[in-house]
Amino acid sequence: MYSSDEEELECPLCMEELDIADRNFRPCPCGYKICRFCWHHIRENLNGRCPACRREYSEQIAEFEPISADEIQRIRREKKEKERQQKDMEVANRRHLANMRVVQKNLVYIIGLHPKLATEEIIRSNDYFGQFGKIAKIVINKRQIAPTSHANGATSMQPSAAVYVTYVRKEDAAKAIHAVDGSVMAGRILRASYGTTKYCTYYLRNMTCPNPNCLYLHEPGEDADTISKEELATG
């Protein structure tokens, strides 16, 4: 009788999982199990011998014990339950990632921008951030009032904008940060650094994200680039 302990058996030749019928198929008395497809292939196209003991295969020595309908249903129920448990475990293992942020090497975060420059057309132009490379996406956050550093060294509370610029290439983002951080634009000192992003809620729930343009993470980030929200808040 088929045992649930054998559920994950694979054919050692084709590496495919043995289906329900093949799991009770014993082609050789030595006990070396393969699927019936490989058994037929060896007999018809190769040397016709067992890969383990070199005994010649034949219909007479092959054993096959049919599985009852009840047994098949039991196997399928156990497999579904195991898949459900595995999915629940994956979701539990990802739950802590909801509190994590990952540094994106193609995402540039700029603060201190004058509100009059905070338009997608200006930011994307070759006179501004478009000069460093092709931009995939721009997100603008126009703050009402924020601490602003001026070229004369003074700091005041002024209307300001923060911008997320996603470049197609990581190298272009690095160039932008190197050129922009500490530079003066419209009389204000800009600060630029790599931006961070979070994990997609669908990924956290082990589901397929329906948005093909989703910019959140759908795979584990590098440990060196991962930081918690608390660490991010405290700098």
Concise structural overview:
Its main location: nucleus. The protein is of the alpha+beta class.
Written account of the structure:
The protein is built from six helices and nine strands, in the order E-H-E-H-E-H-E-E-H-E-E-E-H-E-H. The protein has about 240 residues and is of the alpha+beta class. The protein folds into two domains: about 10-65, Zinc/RING finger domain, C3HC4 (zinc finger) (Herpes Virus-1, 2-Layer Sandwich), CATH 3.30.40.10; about 100-235, 2-Layer Sandwich (Alpha-Beta Plaits). A hairpin with a 5-residue loop joins strand 4 and strand 5 (about 155-165).
Topology of helices and strands:
Layout: E1 25-26, H1 36-45, E2 63-64, H2 69-94, E3 100-113, H3 120-124, E4 135-149, E5 155-167, H4 170-180, E6 184-185, E7 188-189, E8 191-197, H5 201-204, E9 226-228, H6 229-234
Antiparallel strand pairs: 1-2, 3-5, 3-8, 3-9, 4-5, 6-7
Q: Could you name the CATH class of the largest domain?
A: Alpha Beta
Class by helix and strand content? alpha+beta
Helix content: 25-40%
CATH topology descriptor of the largest domain: Alpha-Beta Plaits
Task: Write a concise keyword list for the protein shown above.
zinc ion binding; five-stranded antiparallel beta sheet; 235 residues; Znf_RING/FYVE/PHD; 6 helices; RBD_domain_sf; elongated; alpha+beta; Herpes Virus-1; 2 domains
